[in-house]
Design goal:
single chain; alpha/beta; Rossmann fold; eight-stranded mixed β-sheet; three-stranded antiparallel β-sheet; 24% strand
Length: 293
């Protein structure tokens, strides 16, 4: 017996492949049925691209993680006669489609596994853990007409390339290149209210916002788990008019970022409150050039 699908997952599953975006990203809270919704979509992809040259790709942190997160349930759904899988090589057959590769993408060097390949469809599990170079190389290999990419992930930092360059890129969304679908706990009809209450009670602060609300919020460097809330954000209109004439200590926080993003924070300490009043952010990998001045 197959567990039911929620309304949001059902709409995603029943949308024809040709009407999906080139890049489709399912993101949101834990246990919200994102991966569960991908099982029937993978089977649709196999049928839809049966006569198209190229290979299908299922990728994630490792082959073991992909098997545990994705393939085990998929195999249970279709039955052992309808697949064959080599866990060493990653060669996978689903029904009559033998040209599917399961690839672990654990680090930047993993992109070598798809160089030179022609990919007609791909599914990426836990996208935020996938190296950026591998993700872009995978997209580069999707040259057949109508090729499709699908991915699932829990939220991460709002500075993560997946969020800034795809999920939150208005131009890509408006053009139809990217489709972003947000899931929350209530979108999964297969979890109990007891479990929902347990998850909600187990987290607070940024961890609650990510795991329960599915928001992309900053967690790196947080000292106290419950220190983040929208109440801490202020605008130019909210800033005290005398802030800069008070007796304050001004601190410039620097992460010079030779390999990662470069960040400067303009911090004011009035003895009671730390005000982060300005931020400078430069990501040389995203901009494809170093900042000279």
């Amino acid at each position: 017996m197959i567990n039911p699908y929620g309304e949001k997952a059902f709409r995603f599953i029943t949308n024809p492949i040709e009407d999906d975006a080139k890049i489709n990203i399912l993101h949101g809270s834990v246990r919200s049925s994102k991966t569960w919704a991908m099982h029937p979509k993978i089977l649709q992809l196999v049928k839809h691209f049966a006569k198209v040259q190229g290979m299908g790709v299922i990728t994630g942190v490792s082959k073991e993680a992909i098997h545990d997160n994705v393939l085990r349930d998929l195999f249970n759904i279709i039955g052992e006669k309808n697949y064959s899988y080599n866990r060493q090589t990653g060669d996978l057959r689903l029904f009559t489609e033998p040209n599917i590769k399961v690839i672990g993408a654990k680090d930047e060097g993993s992109e070598k596994y798809i160089r030179g390949k022609t990919v007609k469809w791909a599914y990426g599990d836990e996208l935020t853990l996938m190296p950026e170079s591998f993700f872009h190389q995978l997209l580069n290999r999707m040259s057949p007409p109508g090729a499709r990419f699908y991915g699932t992930t829990n939220p991460d930092s709002p500075y993560h390339h997946l969020y800034t360059d795809f999920i939150n890129d208005k131009k890509k969304l408006d053009s139809g290149l990217v489709r972003s679908i947000h899931f929350c706990l209530d979108d999964n009809p297969n979890i109990t209210e007891e479990y929902k209450n347990f998850i909600k009670a187990s987290h607070s602060g940024v961890f609650f916002q990510r795991a329960v609300e599915g928001k992309w919020v900053v967690a790196e460097g947080a000292i106290y788990r419950d220190s983040w809330s929208d109440d801490l954000i202020y605008t130019d209109d909210d800033r005290p008019v005398d802030l800069y004439v008070r007796s304050v200590e001004r601190i410039i926080g620097i992460d010079y970022g030779t390999a990662n993003a470069q960040v400067y924070l303009d911090i004011l300490d009035d003895g009671k409150t730390l005000w982060i009043d300005n931020e400078y952010y430069w990501d040389s990998q995203k901009e494809a050039r170093q900042k000279n001045r």
